[in-house]
Amino acid sequence: MATGILTIDLDALAENWRALDAISAATTETGAVVKASGYGLGASRVALTLAKAGARRFFVAVAEEGAEIRQALGRGPEIYVFGGHMPGDTDMIHDLDLIPLLNSVDQLTRHFEALPSGAFGIQLDTGMNRLGLEPSEWQAVGALALAQKPRLILSHLASADTPDDPLNAAQLKAFRDMTDGVQVPRSLAATGGTLLGADYHFDLTRPGIGIYGGLPFADARPVVRLALPVIQIRDVAEGETVGYGGSWTAQAPSRIATVSAGYADGLIRAISNKGQLYADGTPCPVVGRVSMDLITVDVTELPDAPKTLNILCPEQTIDALAGHAGTIGYEILTALGPRYSRLYTGGAV
Ligand SMILES: *Cc1c(COP(=O)(O)O)cnc(C)c1O
After folding, report:
1. Residues 130, 100 within the same domain
2. What is the pLDDT of residues 212-228, one digit of tens each?
3. N or C: more exposed end of the chain, with fewer CB within 10 A?
4. Containing domain of residue 306, as a range?
């Protein structure tokens, strides 16, 4: 087999969800964000594992993503759609029993006309300026919307991964100003907000990245491992170059391993000449440019020819690899390509 093997530890996933759940009081429910195919790890397996761990409210970005989650979980668990009620979504929302988080006056109107008794939630903008009703809009339509009995009111923090950012407290105040006294469950915190403390927890937290083992949840257990098969190993003489553009030159006689994965598999080109792969804990630098299907790695220091090299492993988390690539763990995870063999361990589902 010449594809990488992506191992997904469902026990670690469940344990991360429980650890995040334990941060908030027993009166605060913990949901689970499973958008983008469960952050690239497979929506059904992820959702089933988290439902078994105790999650009852799931969140996706768009209604289309709700279909796979509903199919996996059956009726019962609530599935919220961050993108709200878009044109053409009505049948899906109705048939799959999805709960759109209405983001604008247009969406409120569309939803109440199309599905007058259909469940919904409301997203408020408290300073991120991305999705949700502005305070002035909420003032205008709030009473009308509340009369239709929303299931949830939420807002999203823009800087929760930076605890000292004054934007956090400003958004918390705005959220309170807009919702204090309202008899509807409230949610403000994703992973970062969950870690900011009890003031941010309200009735429901909705972590994503922390469940999948990423920062800002520093205590998370890693969930993914990625091992790449070595296709070929060659000796390169001092002064020879490797890869497209000859961007790496051997400073001494070197052994170069070529592994089977590239930017088409989500190992983005930004790690060219920067990242490293690991052979049983020994780092081996990426040399030359990452190409579509292949990465070249300097294995001169290894005593034996490796059969596989690990790019995600305990020595190199998604966030460490992201650091080499100038991005974030979220992007590394959600970019993981379809060519890998996905191997699930644990989870008992
Ligand atoms: C993606 C998302 C989340 C989850 O965020 P994490 O940082 O992954 O925990 C929560 N709420 C909203 C509105 C989101 O878009």
Report:
1. yes
2. 999 999 999 999 999 99
3. N
4. 224-345
